[in-house]
Write a structure and sequence with these properties.
Elements: E1 10-12, H1 26-34, H2 38-49, E2 54-63, E3 66-75, E4 81-82, E5 85-86, H3 102-109, E6 115-116, H4 125-128, H5 136-141, E7 144-148, H6 154-164, E8 168-172, H7 179-182, H8 196-207
Parallel strand pairs: 1-2, 7-8
Antiparallel strand pairs: 2-3, 3-6, 4-5
Helix pairs in contact: 2-3, 6-8
């Protein structure tokens, strides 16, 4: 499984680059950034001043099949290697660490450093519930459903609602899962003695990250 990395922003470009136009070095990344406005250039400057060894930029462009994402992974350690091996002071050569001019650091950070390809997976609701082509996913994401009872019927209903893309689900149930429920419940023996609302919520949150469950405590119906 690819290691998740924090990106330095998601930057929208007018047109997605062709494979032959894909950035090959840090200098190519800097050239691409320079045409995207002052805000993106500011991010690049902050990146150069940071101490991060690796930097990930995400560039996005709209295409026929929806938005496409171009990941750009720059390894700054390439610019910190001297002739005798790794030397972090090489990046600040001629200046005290932390006092190097931003333009100089920018050029060194995004110089001849090689760019590595990085896998990016979409995990937003429109993509999960319709691969970005089903307009109903937006409507479902704005819906709120209240389920009364998370037992043999309600637990399956809650699970199906979450998988279908319903944005918000309230579960009203204060009972705990008992052995007599296990054969008919969506969850098993490992959940015995736990509140049915909480275990249904936890199960759905693990299987469908696009649904929220308002309220941190169990809701109890009173006559």
């Amino acid at each position: 499984m690819p290691t998740p990395r924090r990106a330095r922003g998601l930057h929208l470009v007018e047109r997605a680059p062709l494979p032959s136009q894909y950035p090959q070095t840090g200098a190519d990344v800097l050239a691409l950034i320079s045409g995207l406005g002052e805000d993106v250039v500011t991010v690049a400057n902050e990146t150069a001043l940071s101490q991060d060894a690796e930097v990930l930029f995400l560039f996005a462009a709209n295409g026929r099949g929806g938005p496409g994402v171009v990941p750009v992974h720059v390894d700054r350690r390439d610019s910190q290697k001297g002739s005798g091996g790794k030397d972090e002071k090489m990046l600040h050569r001629g200046f005290r660490v932390g006092k190097s001019p931003a333009p100089l650091l920018l050029a060194k950070t995004f110089g001849t450093n090689k760019v590595r390809r990085t896998q990016v997976d979409r995990a937003d609701a429109p993509w999960i519930h319709g691969r970005g082509q089903d307009r109903r996913s937006r409507s479902l994401g704005n819906k709120t459903v209240t389920v009364f009872g998370a037992g043999s019927v309600g637990s399956f209903v809650t699970q199906d609602l979450a998988r279908s893309g319903v944005g918000h689900i309230n579960i009203v149930d204060y009972d705990k899962l008992a052995w007599a429920n296990v054969g008919r419940h969506v969850l098993g023996a490992s959940s015995i003695g736990k509140t049915r609302r909480s275990i249904c919520r936890e199960s759905c949150e693990l299987s469908s990250r696009t649904t929220s469950f308002p309220g941190g405590t169990c809701l109890r119906c009173r006559s």
